[in-house]
Structure formats: structure tokens, C-alpha cells
Design goal:
single chain, five-stranded antiparallel sheet, 43% helix
């Protein structure tokens, strides 16, 4: 049964409008996936109110000679480096992965000032991104009161 439905889906997606049975199958699949993800504690398919997340999140800042950044640690341990943050130039001591991260986001910087928010995976990555070198985030990150 699933093979037949899958074949119908492929054909309808390639050649035009999907049939009602294909749409019904896809909706059922999406609903079952949502249920499974919710039971695992993940709401990846649900809309998230970012403003609510930011209000409840921990706020940090980094301030130094060549950088001045504001950061938010979300409930899922991701870090949002906020628009308007000033970052330092990249030094040669920065690890290759961190250099690549900086290069990938170079289009979001203008004169070393962020033009839009950036989501990073950890406070460590954020501190490397901001300072342009490998640093201990515990030394440089300060809680915003």
C-alpha cells in the first residue's frame, strides 16, 4: 500500500497537482510526525513566539577594545548574537571551524557591525565569533542585569 501511494505521490509531484489520496496521506504523515516529535519533547513543527523566548532568556554582553556585543541564551541553549553588535577582526589564532563560521556570516557584517541577528550553537562559538580569536567565554562573557 505505501509503495503504491509513494509512487502516486512521485508522479503527481512531477506531473502536476497531487490527488486527494496523496494529500490525505501527506497530511496524515505530517500529523503523525508532529505527534511523535511532541512526545519526544521537540516542537520543531510548531510556531514559536520568538519575543516570548527572548523575554525569558538569559542575556549576556561582551565588551572590549575592539568589540561590543549583546547576546541571548535561549531555552534550547542556542545563542542569538543581536543585531548592532560590534565584532573584532579575525586573528590568525582562530580555529578553522570558527573562521569558516565567520566567513559564512561575513555578508551580515558591515564595518564589523552585525546588520541582523545570528544564531550560534554555543556561548563558546559566540565568544570566538565576537572576539575574532580563541578565548575562554567564562572570562569574557558577562551577565546582563
Amino acid at each position: 500500500m505505501q509503495v503504491v501511494v509513494y509512487a502516486k505521490m512521485e508522479m503527481s509531484l512531477i506531473y502536476g497537482n497531487p490527488s486527494d489520496s496523496v494529500i490525505e496521506y501527506l497530511e496524515k504523515y505530517i500529523n503523525e510526525t508532529k505527534l511523535l516529535m511532541r512526545s519526544l519533547g521537540q516542537n520543531i513543527l510548531e510556531k514559536v513566539d520568538i519575543s516570548k523566548e527572548i523575554k525569558n532568556a538569559e542575556k549576556f554582553y561582551m565588551k572590549g577594545k575592539n568589540y561590543d556585543a549583546k547576546l541571548i541564551l535561549t531555552s534550547d541553549n542556542e545563542v542569538i548574537l543581536l543585531k548592532g553588535s560590534k565584532v573584532a577582526n579575525v586573528s590568525n589564532s582562530l580555529l578553522p571551524n570558527d573562521k569558516k563560521l565567520r566567513e559564512d556570516n561575513q555578508n551580515k557584517l558591515k564595518n564589523n557591525i552585525l546588520q541582523e541577528d545570528i544564531v550560534l550553537k554555543s556561548l563558546s562559538k559566540a565568544s570566538h565569533f565576537v572576539t575574532g580569536c580563541n578565548v575562554n567565554q567564562k572570562r569574557y562573557l558577562k551577565r546582563d542585569e
